[in-house]
């Protein structure tokens, strides 16, 4: 098998990005025939059809889409390697994949502590709710929500449900009676629509409903609506902690309902060779332990 030229990979990435041989050639500053030859070389090397040639635009085959992920990752890492050589004092890059709400409301507010922890790092943070993205391991570290049934998953913290609202909506002290919840609009997370029924059932409350309902796309949008005073949201204790501390939200009713699911730290195979990624993982575990201790002061430290 002959060596695969780097120019073929760049041509393939350009073709996938631009959608046609003509546009890819324009993007690369070369002739269309050159791009066509590079793609043919790549397909012959792999013994796979990567591209379906159409009249105006090309379409990647299933094998082509799968291979594109590898090509993009390889070219990105080569570019990062070149940048590190040209800037030897540059901070190492660590890629993190997280649930959007966890990234916005728990992780990012804590990243100011990285300097105090003396972790010099250039973070690249991506968010996703899809399991497939976590399986592809295009990251060093990831935080996933679930039961922890992932190889090597380390528990950061379990979660619980608590109704929250803007202080201007229910008052800084929350409501006086649980039935008072019915006087307000209830905000619902469409991705996890069972949260309100689950919380009510845990308190033995039947036939209680909001004055009206508002359905939103996900936990992040739902909590943003609560901060804006649009209604009461059934929040995750992990996600609302920062908003409660800074006064953007209050507990509409103080009782929490523990959940079996929690947030778990995943470390990809590539993180094993990245000392900064390992240091960042240790920092995340320590921050999670501090959070758990603050939530339950009676809990003994490990």
UniProtKB/TrEMBL annotation:
SUPFAM superfamilies in the cross-refs: Periplasmic binding protein-like II, Winged helix' DNA-binding domain
The yes or no answer to whether the keyword Transcription is present is yes
Q: Pfam families this protein is in?
A: HTH_1 (PF00126), LysR_substrate (PF03466)
Keywords, A to Z?
Answer: DNA-binding, Transcription, Transcription regulation
Q: Domain (HTH lysR-type): give its ranges.
A: 4-61
Q: Which InterPro entries has this protein been placed in?
A: LysR-type_TF_proteobact-type (IPR058163), LysR_HTH_N (IPR000847), LysR_subst-bd (IPR005119), WH-like_DNA-bd_sf (IPR036388), WH_DNA-bd_sf (IPR036390)
Protein family: Belongs to the LysR transcriptional regulatory family.
Q: Which PANTHER family match?
A: HTH-TYPE TRANSCRIPTIONAL REGULATOR, HTH-TYPE TRANSCRIPTIONAL REGULATOR TRPI
Name by which UniProt lists this protein: LysR family glycine cleavage system transcriptional activator
Which organism is this entry from? Paracidovorax wautersii
